[in-house]
Design brief:
This protein is an alpha+beta fold. The chain has helices spanning 46-55, 60-67, 109-113, 152-158, 162-180, 189-200, 202-211, 214-217, 222-228, 232-248; strands spanning 10-16, 21-24, 68-72, 79-83, 96-97, 100-101, 116-123, 128-138, 148-151. The chain binds iron/sulfur cluster (2 copies). One iron/sulfur cluster binds at residues 26, 30, 32-36, 114, 140-143.
Amino acid sequence: MVISKDKKDIVVPTRMNLDSTFTFACEKDIACFMRCCKDAHIILTPCDIIRMKQKMELSSDEFLYIYTTLGHIEKTELPVPVLKMREDEKKSCPFLGESGCTIYDDRPSTCRYYPIGFGMFHDQDSSADHLLFALIKEGQCLGHGLGKEYTIKEWRIDQGLIPYDEVNASWTELILRRKSLGPFTKIPDKSLQMFFLGSYNVDRFRRFVFDSPFLKIYDIPDERIEKISKDDRATLELANDWLKTTLFGDKTLEVIEQIADTNELEVDA
Ligand code: SF4
Ligand code: SF4
């Protein structure tokens, strides 16, 4: 969700919108093949974690423990998992194999967007939320100017980003709402833990729903309960609704009046 690379040779990115164009090709026979998969700063979105942990047949707890380290979303204190590079000399991505990405079909959004970086900002003057795009030109990447011209809209389709962006939409909204509060608002630690649990640790959030008084506090229809018992995306949607309710006071989830004490919920993120 932020510009993905943290290298010194990035040419200052050019701000773009969905209709902006760029010309780019990345093929296996290009001389720089796999260079971009080393020493990369890759922030993981909720959808990335679901896809990657399913691919690795791990729980989200295991995936987060083995493959990530903790970062923060730019200009906020909101936590975000960052892909941990190997501790070898080149700091390669743990998913880099001899012939390329070993999880290519489930690679994270940042890898799909590259060489486009993306971010979001809340315009205080117009109160509008915006997605920002930028073309990243690193000296090591030889794909610029080769191949086909794309608009960013076309690139997102070409790289299979639409389903990712759909799943991440509520999470993006939460981040923008946090940003709209401005830098001087302090988010309590418990809320940050809730944000981490609800955004990235879908299996633990599911246990939290079933093993805590959650279902006595919130009125969740039976078919939704049934769905979240086995579906990660449905669980993430419930987590997003819970975060909007608890962090921003939205009425996204209905509270059962007789036992409306949400303080009964202890988050163990
Ligand atoms: S996940 Fe795949 S595409 Fe992304 S940096 Fe790692 S090896 Fe490269
Ligand atoms: S450095 Fe650029 S062209 Fe080379 S493999 Fe990576 S994305 Fe493709």
